[in-house]
Amino acid sequence: MGAPSALPLLLLFACCWAPGGANLSQDGYWQEQDLELGTLAPLDEAISSTVWSSPDMLASQDSQPRTSDETVVAGGTVVLKCQVKDHEDSSLQWSNPAQQTLYFGEKRALRDNRIQLVRSTPHELSISISNVALADEGEYTCSIFTMPVRTAKSLVTVLGIPQKPIITGYKSSLREKETTTLNCQSSGSKPAAQLSWRKGEKELHGEPTRIQEDPNGKTFTVSSSVTFQVTREDDGADIVCSVNHESLKGADRSTSQHIEVLYTPTAKIRPDPPHPREGQKLLLHCEGRGNPVPQQYLWEKEGSVPPLKITQESALIFPFLNKSDSGTYGCTATSNMGSYKAYYTLNVNDPSPVPSSSSTYHAIIGGIVAFIVFLLLILLIFLGHYLIRHKGTYLTHEAKGSDDAPDADTAIINAEGGQSGGDDKKEYFI
Protein backbone atom coordinates (compact mmCIF):
# COMPACT_ATOMS: atom_id res chain seq x y z
CA MET A 1 0.00 0.00 0.00
CA GLY A 2 2.94 2.39 0.63
CA ALA A 3 4.67 1.98 -2.81
CA PRO A 4 1.80 3.17 -5.05
CA SER A 5 1.28 6.30 -2.93
CA ALA A 6 4.95 7.30 -3.33
CA LEU A 7 5.04 6.78 -7.10
CA PRO A 8 3.72 10.24 -8.14
CA LEU A 9 6.28 11.89 -5.91
CA LEU A 10 9.13 9.93 -7.45
CA LEU A 11 7.93 10.71 -10.99
CA LEU A 12 7.83 14.46 -10.23
CA PHE A 13 11.30 14.33 -8.70
CA ALA A 14 12.63 12.49 -11.77
CA CYS A 15 11.20 15.14 -14.10
CA CYS A 16 12.79 17.96 -12.18
CA TRP A 17 16.20 16.43 -11.53
CA ALA A 18 18.78 14.79 -13.70
CA PRO A 19 22.32 13.53 -13.06
CA GLY A 20 24.65 16.40 -12.65
CA GLY A 21 21.77 18.75 -11.80
CA ALA A 22 20.82 19.65 -15.42
CA ASN A 23 18.11 22.28 -15.94
CA LEU A 24 16.45 23.64 -19.05
CA SER A 25 17.90 26.83 -20.50
CA GLN A 26 15.90 29.59 -22.22
CA ASP A 27 16.29 27.87 -25.58
CA GLY A 28 15.03 24.55 -24.25
CA TYR A 29 18.39 22.88 -23.61
CA TRP A 30 19.41 21.50 -20.28
CA GLN A 31 22.07 23.29 -18.25
CA GLU A 32 24.17 21.62 -15.59
CA GLN A 33 23.99 22.88 -12.01
CA ASP A 34 26.47 22.49 -9.19
CA LEU A 35 24.62 19.62 -7.51
CA GLU A 36 26.73 16.76 -6.31
CA LEU A 37 26.00 13.43 -8.00
CA GLY A 38 24.12 11.01 -5.89
CA THR A 39 22.74 13.69 -3.55
CA LEU A 40 19.00 13.62 -3.15
CA ALA A 41 17.62 16.98 -2.19
CA PRO A 42 14.12 17.47 -0.81
CA LEU A 43 11.41 18.12 -3.36
CA ASP A 44 11.12 21.91 -2.71
CA GLU A 45 14.90 22.35 -3.03
CA ALA A 46 14.91 20.38 -6.26
CA ILE A 47 12.15 22.54 -7.71
CA SER A 48 13.85 25.77 -6.62
CA SER A 49 17.11 24.74 -8.23
CA THR A 50 15.34 24.53 -11.59
CA VAL A 51 15.60 28.14 -12.87
CA TRP A 52 14.27 29.21 -16.25
CA SER A 53 16.75 31.95 -17.17
CA SER A 54 14.98 35.24 -18.10
CA PRO A 55 16.30 37.70 -20.72
CA ASP A 56 16.83 40.42 -18.06
CA MET A 57 19.15 38.13 -16.09
CA LEU A 58 21.23 37.45 -19.19
CA ALA A 59 21.31 41.07 -20.39
CA SER A 60 24.46 43.05 -20.19
CA GLN A 61 24.52 45.73 -17.50
CA ASP A 62 25.98 48.17 -19.99
CA SER A 63 22.93 47.77 -22.23
CA GLN A 64 20.46 48.38 -19.38
CA PRO A 65 18.94 51.90 -19.49
CA ARG A 66 19.02 53.97 -16.30
CA THR A 67 16.44 56.50 -15.07
CA SER A 68 15.50 58.25 -11.81
CA ASP A 69 12.25 59.09 -10.01
CA GLU A 70 11.16 62.74 -10.16
CA THR A 71 8.96 64.97 -8.03
CA VAL A 72 7.38 68.09 -9.50
CA VAL A 73 4.91 70.71 -8.29
CA ALA A 74 1.69 70.98 -10.27
CA GLY A 75 2.16 73.63 -12.93
CA GLY A 76 5.92 73.15 -13.00
CA THR A 77 8.27 71.39 -15.44
CA VAL A 78 9.81 67.95 -15.07
CA VAL A 79 12.77 66.55 -17.03
CA LEU A 80 12.94 62.80 -17.70
CA LYS A 81 16.44 61.54 -18.45
CA CYS A 82 17.29 58.06 -19.76
CA GLN A 83 20.90 56.96 -20.26
CA VAL A 84 22.60 53.79 -21.49
CA LYS A 85 26.29 52.89 -21.84
CA ASP A 86 26.05 50.33 -24.68
CA HIS A 87 23.21 51.19 -27.03
CA GLU A 88 23.95 48.23 -29.39
CA ASP A 89 22.97 50.38 -32.38
CA SER A 90 19.46 50.76 -31.03
CA SER A 91 17.41 53.86 -30.16
CA LEU A 92 15.88 54.91 -26.86
CA GLN A 93 12.18 55.58 -26.37
CA TRP A 94 10.03 57.29 -23.72
CA SER A 95 6.43 56.18 -23.02
CA ASN A 96 3.84 57.66 -20.65
CA PRO A 97 1.91 55.73 -17.95
CA ALA A 98 -0.73 54.84 -20.58
CA GLN A 99 2.09 53.26 -22.65
CA GLN A 100 1.76 55.89 -25.34
CA THR A 101 5.07 56.65 -27.05
CA LEU A 102 6.22 60.18 -26.38
CA TYR A 103 9.55 60.25 -28.20
CA PHE A 104 11.46 57.64 -30.21
CA GLY A 105 14.94 59.03 -30.56
CA GLU A 106 14.53 62.54 -31.97
CA LYS A 107 11.06 61.87 -33.34
CA ARG A 108 8.00 63.05 -31.46
CA ALA A 109 5.24 60.47 -31.38
CA LEU A 110 2.56 62.19 -29.27
CA ARG A 111 1.11 65.55 -30.24
CA ASP A 112 1.41 67.36 -26.95
CA ASN A 113 3.21 70.68 -27.12
CA ARG A 114 4.00 70.47 -23.41
CA ILE A 115 6.43 67.65 -24.17
CA GLN A 116 9.72 68.81 -25.69
CA LEU A 117 13.00 67.15 -26.61
CA VAL A 118 15.90 68.17 -24.38
CA ARG A 119 18.69 65.89 -25.60
CA SER A 120 18.93 62.95 -27.99
CA THR A 121 22.12 60.95 -28.52
CA PRO A 122 22.79 57.23 -28.94
CA HIS A 123 23.52 57.15 -25.19
CA GLU A 124 20.83 59.50 -23.85
CA LEU A 125 17.24 60.55 -24.43
CA SER A 126 15.94 63.40 -22.25
CA ILE A 127 12.56 65.06 -22.56
CA SER A 128 10.71 67.75 -20.58
CA ILE A 129 7.03 68.07 -19.67
CA SER A 130 5.90 71.60 -18.82
CA ASN A 131 2.76 72.77 -17.02
CA VAL A 132 2.54 69.41 -15.30
CA ALA A 133 -0.96 68.42 -14.12
CA LEU A 134 -2.01 65.91 -11.49
CA ALA A 135 -3.11 63.59 -14.32
CA ASP A 136 0.51 63.38 -15.51
CA GLU A 137 1.53 61.48 -12.39
CA GLY A 138 2.57 57.86 -12.83
CA GLU A 139 5.31 55.54 -14.11
CA TYR A 140 7.07 56.55 -17.33
CA THR A 141 9.01 53.91 -19.25
CA CYS A 142 12.32 54.22 -21.08
CA SER A 143 12.95 51.39 -23.55
CA ILE A 144 15.85 50.34 -25.76
CA PHE A 145 15.04 47.98 -28.61
CA THR A 146 17.89 45.49 -28.35
CA MET A 147 17.47 41.73 -28.29
CA PRO A 148 15.80 41.38 -25.90
CA VAL A 149 14.12 44.77 -25.29
CA ARG A 150 15.27 46.39 -22.05
CA THR A 151 13.27 48.91 -20.03
CA ALA A 152 13.61 51.20 -17.00
CA LYS A 153 10.90 52.97 -15.02
CA SER A 154 10.71 56.56 -13.76
CA LEU A 155 8.03 57.40 -11.20
CA VAL A 156 6.81 60.96 -11.54
CA THR A 157 5.13 62.33 -8.41
CA VAL A 158 3.07 65.51 -8.83
CA LEU A 159 2.53 67.66 -5.75
CA GLY A 160 -0.79 69.47 -5.43
CA ILE A 161 -0.38 73.06 -4.19
CA PRO A 162 -2.74 73.90 -1.30
CA GLN A 163 -5.04 76.85 -1.80
CA LYS A 164 -4.93 79.95 0.40
CA PRO A 165 -6.67 79.07 3.68
CA ILE A 166 -10.04 80.54 4.60
CA ILE A 167 -10.92 81.53 8.20
CA THR A 168 -14.56 81.43 9.34
CA GLY A 169 -16.41 81.79 12.64
CA TYR A 170 -15.51 85.37 13.57
CA LYS A 171 -18.28 87.69 14.75
CA SER A 172 -18.26 91.47 14.29
CA SER A 173 -16.80 92.06 17.76
CA LEU A 174 -15.97 90.15 20.94
CA ARG A 175 -16.41 91.12 24.56
CA GLU A 176 -13.59 90.88 27.06
CA LYS A 177 -13.24 87.36 28.57
CA GLU A 178 -15.51 85.92 25.86
CA THR A 179 -14.54 82.53 24.36
CA THR A 180 -14.50 82.22 20.58
CA THR A 181 -13.79 79.47 18.03
CA LEU A 182 -12.26 80.09 14.61
CA ASN A 183 -12.17 77.56 11.75
CA CYS A 184 -9.59 77.31 8.96
CA GLN A 185 -9.78 75.30 5.72
CA SER A 186 -7.54 74.74 2.68
CA SER A 187 -8.12 72.44 -0.31
CA GLY A 188 -6.11 71.12 -3.26
CA SER A 189 -3.05 69.78 -1.45
CA LYS A 190 -1.31 66.55 -2.38
CA PRO A 191 -0.24 64.97 -0.16
CA ALA A 192 -2.44 66.40 2.58
CA ALA A 193 -1.14 69.67 4.06
CA GLN A 194 -0.91 70.64 7.73
CA LEU A 195 -2.44 73.74 9.35
CA SER A 196 -1.09 75.81 12.24
CA TRP A 197 -2.36 78.80 14.25
CA ARG A 198 -0.73 81.82 15.84
CA LYS A 199 -1.76 85.11 17.44
CA GLY A 200 0.72 87.75 16.37
CA GLU A 201 4.05 85.98 16.97
CA LYS A 202 2.66 83.62 19.64
CA GLU A 203 1.63 80.08 18.70
CA LEU A 204 -1.95 79.00 19.37
CA HIS A 205 -2.62 75.32 20.00
CA GLY A 206 -5.49 74.35 17.73
CA GLU A 207 -7.12 70.99 17.13
CA PRO A 208 -5.27 68.40 15.00
CA THR A 209 -5.63 68.87 11.25
CA ARG A 210 -8.61 67.01 9.76
CA ILE A 211 -8.09 65.48 6.29
CA GLN A 212 -10.78 64.82 3.65
CA GLU A 213 -10.23 63.54 0.10
CA ASP A 214 -11.39 65.87 -2.68
CA PRO A 215 -13.91 64.65 -5.32
CA ASN A 216 -11.12 64.28 -7.92
CA GLY A 217 -9.64 61.47 -5.84
CA LYS A 218 -6.14 62.97 -6.02
CA THR A 219 -6.02 66.00 -3.70
CA PHE A 220 -7.14 66.66 -0.14
CA THR A 221 -8.98 69.32 1.86
CA VAL A 222 -7.61 69.99 5.33
CA SER A 223 -9.28 71.88 8.16
CA SER A 224 -8.56 72.89 11.74
CA SER A 225 -10.14 74.97 14.51
CA VAL A 226 -8.85 76.89 17.51
CA THR A 227 -10.69 78.02 20.65
CA PHE A 228 -9.42 80.72 23.02
CA GLN A 229 -10.60 83.37 25.49
CA VAL A 230 -9.99 86.98 24.49
CA THR A 231 -8.61 89.75 26.72
CA ARG A 232 -8.35 93.49 26.27
CA GLU A 233 -4.76 92.97 25.06
CA ASP A 234 -6.21 91.02 22.10
CA ASP A 235 -8.00 94.12 20.78
CA GLY A 236 -6.54 94.74 17.31
CA ALA A 237 -4.63 91.43 17.23
CA ASP A 238 -4.29 89.26 14.10
CA ILE A 239 -5.16 85.56 14.31
CA VAL A 240 -3.19 83.77 11.58
CA CYS A 241 -3.82 80.35 9.97
CA SER A 242 -0.86 79.01 7.97
CA VAL A 243 -0.53 76.08 5.54
CA ASN A 244 2.58 73.90 5.76
CA HIS A 245 3.32 71.85 2.62
CA GLU A 246 6.40 70.65 0.75
CA SER A 247 5.18 72.15 -2.54
CA LEU A 248 5.47 75.65 -1.03
CA LYS A 249 9.23 75.21 -0.45
CA GLY A 250 9.19 77.38 2.65
CA ALA A 251 7.02 80.14 1.17
CA ASP A 252 4.36 81.59 3.45
CA ARG A 253 0.75 80.82 2.58
CA SER A 254 -1.50 82.10 5.33
CA THR A 255 -4.62 84.10 6.12
CA SER A 256 -5.11 86.49 9.05
CA GLN A 257 -8.26 87.55 10.87
CA HIS A 258 -8.21 90.94 12.61
CA ILE A 259 -10.23 90.81 15.83
CA GLU A 260 -11.85 93.57 17.88
CA VAL A 261 -12.39 93.21 21.63
CA LEU A 262 -14.81 95.43 23.60
CA TYR A 263 -13.72 96.18 27.17
CA THR A 264 -14.47 98.57 30.04
CA PRO A 265 -12.60 101.90 30.10
CA THR A 266 -9.68 102.99 32.23
CA ALA A 267 -8.60 106.55 33.07
CA LYS A 268 -5.66 108.52 34.46
CA ILE A 269 -5.47 112.23 35.45
CA ARG A 270 -2.48 114.19 34.16
CA PRO A 271 -1.82 117.84 35.33
CA ASP A 272 -0.49 120.51 32.96
CA PRO A 273 1.85 122.00 34.20
CA PRO A 274 3.08 119.08 36.31
CA HIS A 275 3.83 121.29 39.38
CA PRO A 276 1.09 123.91 39.58
CA ARG A 277 1.62 127.16 41.52
CA GLU A 278 -0.69 129.83 42.76
CA GLY A 279 -1.68 132.32 40.08
CA GLN A 280 -0.98 129.91 37.17
CA LYS A 281 -3.43 128.36 34.70
CA LEU A 282 -3.94 124.62 35.27
CA LEU A 283 -5.47 121.90 33.08
CA LEU A 284 -6.32 118.48 34.54
CA HIS A 285 -6.52 115.99 31.65
CA CYS A 286 -8.56 112.83 32.25
CA GLU A 287 -6.97 110.39 29.79
CA GLY A 288 -9.52 107.65 29.17
CA ARG A 289 -8.88 104.40 27.31
CA GLY A 290 -11.27 101.67 26.25
CA ASN A 291 -13.15 100.09 23.38
CA PRO A 292 -15.26 101.98 22.71
CA VAL A 293 -13.47 105.07 24.04
CA PRO A 294 -15.26 106.89 26.91
CA GLN A 295 -17.97 109.29 25.72
CA GLN A 296 -18.56 111.15 29.04
CA TYR A 297 -16.39 112.55 31.83
CA LEU A 298 -17.68 113.53 35.30
CA TRP A 299 -15.46 115.75 37.49
CA GLU A 300 -15.89 115.89 41.28
CA LYS A 301 -14.01 117.30 44.24
CA GLU A 302 -14.02 115.54 47.57
CA GLY A 303 -15.99 117.57 50.12
CA SER A 304 -17.97 119.33 47.41
CA VAL A 305 -21.52 117.99 47.01
CA PRO A 306 -22.47 119.05 43.46
CA PRO A 307 -20.32 117.75 40.56
CA LEU A 308 -17.88 120.26 39.17
CA LYS A 309 -18.41 119.38 35.53
CA ILE A 310 -20.16 116.83 33.31
CA THR A 311 -18.87 117.01 29.76
CA GLN A 312 -17.64 115.12 26.74
CA GLU A 313 -14.33 116.95 27.05
CA SER A 314 -11.68 115.25 29.11
CA ALA A 315 -10.07 118.38 30.69
CA LEU A 316 -10.92 120.41 33.81
CA ILE A 317 -9.60 124.00 33.54
CA PHE A 318 -8.47 126.35 36.36
CA PRO A 319 -7.87 129.79 34.77
CA PHE A 320 -6.20 131.24 37.92
CA LEU A 321 -5.12 128.89 40.71
CA ASN A 322 -5.80 129.74 44.35
CA LYS A 323 -4.79 128.01 47.55
CA SER A 324 -8.45 127.14 48.00
CA ASP A 325 -8.31 124.95 44.87
CA SER A 326 -6.15 122.40 46.68
CA GLY A 327 -7.84 119.05 47.29
CA THR A 328 -8.58 115.61 45.79
CA TYR A 329 -10.33 115.51 42.43
CA GLY A 330 -12.06 112.54 40.81
CA CYS A 331 -12.75 111.88 37.12
CA THR A 332 -15.27 109.21 36.10
CA ALA A 333 -14.84 108.04 32.46
CA THR A 334 -17.96 106.31 31.08
CA SER A 335 -18.70 104.29 27.93
CA ASN A 336 -21.45 101.83 27.06
CA MET A 337 -19.16 99.08 28.41
CA GLY A 338 -18.97 100.62 31.92
CA SER A 339 -17.24 103.30 34.01
CA TYR A 340 -13.89 103.90 35.68
CA LYS A 341 -12.96 106.57 38.28
CA ALA A 342 -9.48 108.09 38.63
CA TYR A 343 -8.21 110.40 41.41
CA TYR A 344 -5.67 113.22 41.64
CA THR A 345 -4.57 115.26 44.68
CA LEU A 346 -3.90 118.93 43.87
CA ASN A 347 -1.49 120.87 46.05
CA VAL A 348 -1.21 124.53 45.03
CA ASN A 349 2.32 125.79 45.72
CA ASP A 350 3.39 129.35 46.42
CA PRO A 351 3.93 131.70 43.48
CA SER A 352 6.95 130.83 41.44
CA PRO A 353 10.22 132.47 42.59
CA VAL A 354 11.74 131.92 39.23
CA PRO A 355 12.49 135.32 37.59
CA SER A 356 10.86 136.31 34.39
CA SER A 357 12.69 136.22 31.10
CA SER A 358 13.26 140.03 31.10
CA SER A 359 14.77 139.86 34.59
CA THR A 360 17.04 137.07 33.47
CA TYR A 361 18.15 139.18 30.51
CA HIS A 362 18.93 142.15 32.76
CA ALA A 363 20.86 139.96 35.16
CA ILE A 364 23.01 138.68 32.32
CA ILE A 365 23.72 142.22 31.11
CA GLY A 366 24.57 143.36 34.65
CA GLY A 367 27.00 140.49 35.05
CA ILE A 368 28.78 141.40 31.83
CA VAL A 369 29.07 145.09 32.89
CA ALA A 370 30.44 144.13 36.32
CA PHE A 371 33.07 141.95 34.70
CA ILE A 372 34.15 144.78 32.40
CA VAL A 373 34.39 147.20 35.37
CA PHE A 374 36.49 144.67 37.23
CA LEU A 375 38.89 144.41 34.31
CA LEU A 376 39.16 148.21 34.12
CA LEU A 377 40.02 148.45 37.84
CA ILE A 378 42.74 145.86 37.45
CA LEU A 379 44.12 147.80 34.49
CA LEU A 380 44.12 151.10 36.43
CA ILE A 381 45.94 149.55 39.38
CA PHE A 382 48.69 148.19 37.13
CA LEU A 383 48.91 151.50 35.26
CA GLY A 384 49.24 153.52 38.51
CA HIS A 385 51.94 151.23 39.78
CA TYR A 386 53.77 151.55 36.47
CA LEU A 387 53.66 155.35 36.52
CA ILE A 388 54.89 155.56 40.13
CA ARG A 389 57.92 153.40 39.37
CA HIS A 390 58.86 155.41 36.26
CA LYS A 391 58.54 158.77 38.14
CA GLY A 392 60.98 157.66 40.90
CA THR A 393 63.48 156.56 38.26
CA TYR A 394 63.37 160.01 36.64
CA LEU A 395 64.16 161.86 39.96
CA THR A 396 67.02 159.49 40.65
CA HIS A 397 68.63 160.35 37.33
CA GLU A 398 68.43 164.11 38.17
CA ALA A 399 70.15 163.59 41.50
CA LYS A 400 72.99 161.66 39.90
CA GLY A 401 73.77 164.77 37.79
CA SER A 402 75.12 166.72 40.93
CA ASP A 403 78.29 166.07 42.93
CA ASP A 404 76.35 165.55 46.14
CA ALA A 405 74.26 162.63 44.78
CA PRO A 406 74.33 159.57 47.03
CA ASP A 407 74.75 156.00 45.96
CA ALA A 408 71.98 154.39 44.02
CA ASP A 409 71.21 152.03 46.91
CA THR A 410 70.01 154.88 49.12
CA ALA A 411 66.27 155.48 48.90
CA ILE A 412 65.80 158.63 50.98
CA ILE A 413 68.50 160.59 52.84
CA ASN A 414 67.44 163.22 55.28
CA ALA A 415 70.02 165.79 56.47
CA GLU A 416 69.86 165.83 60.23
CA GLY A 417 71.77 167.45 63.11
CA GLY A 418 75.44 167.29 61.92
CA GLN A 419 74.82 169.08 58.61
CA SER A 420 75.05 172.89 58.45
CA GLY A 421 72.57 175.09 56.68
CA GLY A 422 68.96 174.38 55.80
CA ASP A 423 69.66 174.86 52.10
CA ASP A 424 71.91 171.80 52.05
CA LYS A 425 69.00 169.48 52.98
CA LYS A 426 68.13 167.22 49.96
CA GLU A 427 65.87 164.21 49.24
CA TYR A 428 66.61 161.54 46.73
CA PHE A 429 64.28 159.01 45.16
CA ILE A 430 65.16 155.94 43.35
TrEMBL record:
Pfam family for this entry, one: Ig_3
Basic and acidic residues bias spans: 198-216
Domain Ig-like: 55-144, 162-260, 265-347
Protein origin, superkingdom: Eukaryota
Quaternary data: Homodimer. Can form trans-heterodimers with NECTIN3. Interacts with EPB41L1, DLG3, PALS2 and CASK.
UniProt function note: Involved in cell-cell adhesion. Has both calcium-independent homophilic cell-cell adhesion activity and calcium-independent heterophilic cell-cell adhesion activity with IGSF4, NECTIN1 and NECTIN3. Interaction with EPB41L1 may regulate structure or function of cell-cell junctions.
Protein name: Cell adhesion molecule 3
Organism: Pteropus vampyrus (Large flying fox)
